[in-house]
């Protein structure tokens, strides 16, 4: 069926001198031949470093913490022409004009490839809820008024879903704070 066996000579450098693969179990801690430790052989060549033109948002992150800490970025909401920061949830839904409306980019907010961020809403004494908020904008700039309106809707839904006994038009949205990469938490207070 396969023809006659080959009589070609195999050089010594190409012959198997150790045990066959079926005789070795990489899970065994004991290697009777001492030439197989379960890991692929390493090369003495040092790996190439990254090019200097490569851009990295974070340098070496501390992996001892077990999680990525918030970046401390803040998205501030302030009515145009006022000195005090923060807008009411009712004002945000009424499309009030905000100062620095195009100050933030999609990259600044660490949005995903669908241009969405996660919003984790919390109120003291209640469980948190996480919302997916789509971002809207032009020329790589986020429309802050649209973001404020969508965040306001999520906060109102949270207050109603948890039956929190407070009028939502008395709640003020001061800013969003990044608690993890792409995850934002609104800082709320009451008037």
UniProtKB/TrEMBL annotation:
Q: Which residues form the DUF6741 domain?
A: 66-190
In its UniProt entry, what is this protein called?
A: DUF6741 domain-containing protein
